[in-house]
Amino acid sequence: MITYFKNVFSGLVNLCKGMYITMLQFCRPKVTEPYPENRKTRKQFERFRGELTMPHNDKNEHKCTGCGICAMNCPNQTITVTKNKVTTEDGKAKIELDQYLYDLGSCIFCGICTQVCPQNAIAWSTNFEHAVFTKSKLVKQLNKPGSKKEEKPAPVKAEPAEKKEAPKENNDKSE
Amino acid sequence: MSLELSGLINAIHEGLTGAIEAQWLVSLIEYVLVGAGLLALYALIALFLIIFERKICAWFQCRLGPNRVGPWGIFQVFADMLKIMFKEIIPLKHNDKLLFYAGPCIVVIGSFLTFGGLQFAEGVHGVDLNIGVFYLLAVSSISIVGVMLAGWSSNNKYALIGAMRSGAQVISFELSACLSMMAVVILGGSMNLSTLMEKQEDLWFIFQAPVPMLIAMVIYLIAAHAETNRGPFDLPEAESELTAGYHVEYSGMTFGYFYVAEYCNLFINAAIGALVFLGGWQAFHIPGCDGFNAVMDMCPSYVWFFLKCLFFIFMSLWVRWSFPRLRIDQLLHLEWKIMLPFSLFNILLVAVWVIIF
Ligand code: SF4
Ligand code: SF4
């Protein structure tokens, strides 16, 4: 008999506790993003993988060597790297990136490409508004027209220690 | 007071009697007017409650709720209503056609009949029956017949199980709801709603006898909530087990009838609770504080009534979005082993209370 009343009243108390919790939720600020209205102020998560980009510096230079490792590792063959063979002034033959094509339509946003790139040449942007009317517009050229490979400062070649550090940075970023 | 609706009603009555000689014609026109008014109110309340519930539910889940159609999404519900009206009613093979279509109609009729017995404001009510409370309880449980018919005639095992669960649930909880009403009737000394309203003029029943009335109110709210088949008592509709329960085979407006009736039952339960516990359309009065009472009287009586209803509806939604669904044995345990003994004891308590005070 005593346990019966105990159960009933502790049950009531527990129900009140539950209702108190939901009331707290009721009063909390709402998390819904009123999307098109807050387009300007909306904050996107930093690590959101929206679209593959190739960062260029002010002199319209990128870091990609055209090695094609990213294209080889891509599970969907989303990336197509075409290369040019050029001869430099001192007569050396050199491979240079011609076109870096990225097909947004077949990308699964796995992020392998950014992880494997030894030059850290490609990165994710958080842009997610991809809608277009024709499929062909989803294929994008990531290296800007007229851009060229960023020249490394001369001493880097001499110091192998720094070379080792570069891939480490890579891993940190893509993790 | 000019804000009251009773003045308007009297004016209409006098205008009609002045214009038309035949008394029977006047009565006929008035009946039609009252019926049309109640029907309009019925539809409007259902629409309002749908948007209200969607908003409140969203806020409990930290969302904003409908916010696209019209300001704060208030026209969403009209769009939904139009959509459901234009939807096809899919006919079934191998089922009992007559009962299948009678089901939703009975559900709506059952909940609409209660509107005739409610008192919406001072002097605004359909019929003032001398057994008003009894009438309300009786007709509001007609709906369950419709639910059982719907479940039976759908020729679907989910619908049948849902209807059976609903029947077991409504019939058991009806008992507690009626017994807590009995407590009120003992305190008020009448089943006539107008008399009950008069008795609450100075002080609402909940303040006249706080202890037994509070117990009665809590029991009534739980029982009424269970009768509307809403969460945490929504096991007749348990979508994870029974897809949608008794209305799984219904489409278009036949489903719409169940939907409208569900929301109106929500309002009806809140309204009955407000009438008998919180003084219905009576303003909040403290005996002896004439100034305070005069201020409270400034607010028209229908505003008081609908505010109290909203309070109860909000409580019901709050419970709905707080607790997980009960199992059928837990549900029946709650009713027969906890609520029923408490409400029986409460009747004894209120009787003693009435004798002593
Ligand atoms: S994210 Fe994955 S699928 Fe997309 S381009 Fe990179 S490697 Fe290919
Ligand atoms: S993006 Fe990186 S991995 Fe891909 S081709 Fe350029 S340097 Fe090589």
Shape of chain B: globular
Structural class of chain B: mainly alpha
Order of helices and strands of chain A: HEEHEEHEEEHH
Distance between the termini of chain B: 34 Å
Total count of helical runs of at least 4 residues of chain B? 15
C-alpha end-to-end distance of chain A: 60 Å
Please tally the helical runs of chain A, counting DSSP H or I stretches of 4 or more residues.
5
What's the layout of helices and strands?
The complex is a heterodimer of chains A (175) and B (357).
Chain A: H1 2-27, E1 51-53, E2 61-62, H2 69-73, E3 79-87, E4 93-103, H3 112-116, E5 123-125, E6 139-141, E7 148-149, H4 155-158, H5 160-174
Chain B: H1 5-19, H2 23-60, H3 76-86, H4 97-117, E1 119-121, E2 124-125, H5 132-140, H6 143-153, H7 157-188, H8 193-199, H9 205-208, H10 210-227, H11 239-242, H12 252-277, H13 290-297, H14 301-320, H15 328-356
One iron/sulfur cluster is lined by residues 52, 74-76, 78-79, 107-113 of chain A.
